[in-house]
Design brief:
With 71 residues, this protein is an all-beta fold. The chain is built from no helices and six strands.
Length: 71
C-alpha cells in the first residue's frame, strides 16, 4: 500500500497522529504514522499479523510547523 498526504501542522512540539489504520485491538495488524518526539520527526509503526511492532523513524526536523508539506 501507499500513503500520501499534504500536511500543515501548526505544532510539531507534541506527538500527534497523521494516519492510523487497523482495528482497536491491541497488537492487531495495522499502521501508525505520527509526528513524534517534539522535534518534527516522522515516526511509523507497522504491526504485523503476529502483533509484533516494526518501528521506522526519520531524523529530527523533517516536519516543519506552519508550512505545507507533501509526505
Amino acid at each position: 500500500f501507499c500513503v500520501e498526504m499534504w500536511i500543515q501542522p501548526v505544532d510539531t512540539t507534541q506527538s500527534q497522529p497523521l494516519f492510523e489504520w487497523g482495528t482497536s485491538s491491541e497488537k492487531a495488524p495495522g499502521v501508525h504514522l505520527w509526528i513524534h518526539d517534539g522535534v518534527g520527526r516522522l515516526f511509523a509503526n507497522l504491526v504485523d499479523d503476529k502483533g509484533e511492532y516494526h518501528f521506522l523513524s526519520s531524523g529530527p526536523g523533517i516536519i516543519k510547523p506552519n508550512v505545507w508539506q507533501h509526505k
